[in-house]
Amino acid sequence: MKHIKSITLIGICLLMFNVTLAQTITKEQTIFLTPLWEGERFPDGRPKVPDDILERMKSVAIEEAWGVLRNEGYHNQFEGGWKPLHDDAPFVGRALTAQYMPNRPDVADQIKKKGERDGRVGNTNSWPIDMLITGDVYVADCFGKIVDGTLIGDNLGNAIYAKSKTGVVFNASSRDMEGLSQIEGFNAYVRDWHPSFLTEVMLLSLNTPIRIGAVTVLPGDVVLAKKEGVIFIPAHLAEKIVITSEIVRLRDLFGITRLKEGVYSPGQIDNKWSDAIEKDFSKWLNDHIDELPVPKEQIQELLKKRTW
Questions:
Q1: Structure pTM?
Q2: In terms of Cα–Cα distance, which of 159, 153, 155 is closest to 85?
Q3: Which of 51, 158, 168, 233 has the fewest other C-beta atoms within 10 Å?
Q4: Which residues constitute the signal peptide according to the record (predicted)?
């Protein structure tokens, strides 16, 4: 038993050594951590949730996503308490993660030397930005540091948006709020804003599991940032959340429409629908398929699966 424990401890130490010096985990390790994802992956192993799902996710309410996640046993996926650049400009994307820690010169020097050997350029806080592609959201844990914890200003913000076309979520602060607000389409969810420069932090890992408040975030998670806060969705549940939200949206619209028309009473709509109402709902979907706020193809798919 002691021998097994020793081997396990050595394995953990080797993994930590690899993460510290390479700033990332291997493709195989990412796949190991996301075993329920059965779709396409990026070369680094991150789940590649389809662009279509990301686009449809923009219409999902935080409460809808939260409800599905809770039902699936995921109780720690939402984090609030942000000071967004724009609280009325939600965004969606795939998480590219980074972890910063308080600076320790001996470790920081090793990381920089390894980065130089790997061809990385510039300061370490630019390394995650170099890795971004369209649809990514740069998610970083910098231990909630505000003063001297400003991970980006408007220069890096422009670089981020040029590569990702989304935004950032930082358990830290940012600077240059005025300049960042002029980047059309860009948004930032941060803990606070501060005029100081980033100092006394070091980049420890890239594209590894990180903690954002009460949430464990994995590379490739779908990030849904809205006015209430940010919810991090495991890749394998993204499509289910989108479909559930669309069905709820359609049923709500049908119910409100029929109530306004006086066809049904509030008691009939607020309770479990009868077979007659379900049939009416199916007919209503088919009759208004080109007018509804859900893609026509998705409604057709829904109608195929209904029994009436």
A1: 0.87
A2: 153
A3: 51
A4: 1-22
